[in-house]
């Protein structure tokens, strides 16, 4: 559509000292990009991994993104989402006043969460079925 802003998505996670965990978030971002039909989905981290949120936003702006959706990849609304993320977003909005930045909800409270937990329980039950 003419005049439509290029939208990007950042999957914002805590970050881990275990690189495989960070790679998993980046892989998930790639899956979201493909499944959602987005042209720009990347992972960013609060700490212990790169890129941080500021660098990820800078990269998105360089890629031509003008509307950004940040999705917290956190299970609960703890201090990182109630305090840290709003402060980081406020700073980035000041840094890029022409960039629309929207923040989605954490995974907490999502209606599919109980189904996901039940799936994990069934996996364990199926793997460790009692032998007669």
What does this structure look like?
It contains four helices and four strands; from the N terminus they run E-H-E-H-E-H-E-H. The protein is of the alpha/beta class. The mean pLDDT is 93.
List keywords for this structure.
single chain, 132 residues, alpha/beta, Rossmann fold, four-stranded parallel β-sheet, 4 helices, 4 strands, 45% helix
Brief overview:
Helix content is 45%, strand content 17%. The radius of gyration is 17 Å and the shape is elongated.
The gyration radius over C-alpha positions equals 17 Å
The level-1 CATH class = Alpha Beta
User: Overall pLDDT, averaged?
Assistant: 93
**What is the helix/strand order?**
EHEHEHEH
Helix coverage percent of residues?
40-55%
Do you know the CATH architecture?
3-Layer(aba) Sandwich
Q: Count all strands and give the number.
A: 4
Topology:
Layout (H helix, E strand, L loop, with lengths): L6 E7 L5 H18 L4 E5 L7 H10 L4 E6 L6 H17 L4 E4 L9 H15 L5
Parallel strand pairs: 1-2, 1-3, 3-4
């Amino acid at each position: 559509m003419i005049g439509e802003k290029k939208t990007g998505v950042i999957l914002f996670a805590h970050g881990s000292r275990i690189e495989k965990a960070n790679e998993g978030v980046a892989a998930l971002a790639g899956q979201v990009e493909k499944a959602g039909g987005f042209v720009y989905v990347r992972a960013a981290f609060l700490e212990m991994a790169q890129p941080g949120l500021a660098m990820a936003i800078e990269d998105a702006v360089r890629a031509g993104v003008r509307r950004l959706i940040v999705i917290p990849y956190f299970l609960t609304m703890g201090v990182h989402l109630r305090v840290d993320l709003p402060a980081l977003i406020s700073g980035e909005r000041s840094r890029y006043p022409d960039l629309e930045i929207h923040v989605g909800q954490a995974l907490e409270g999502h209606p599919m969460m109980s189904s996901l937990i039940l799936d994990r329980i069934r996996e364990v039950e199926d793997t460790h079925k009692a032998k007669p």
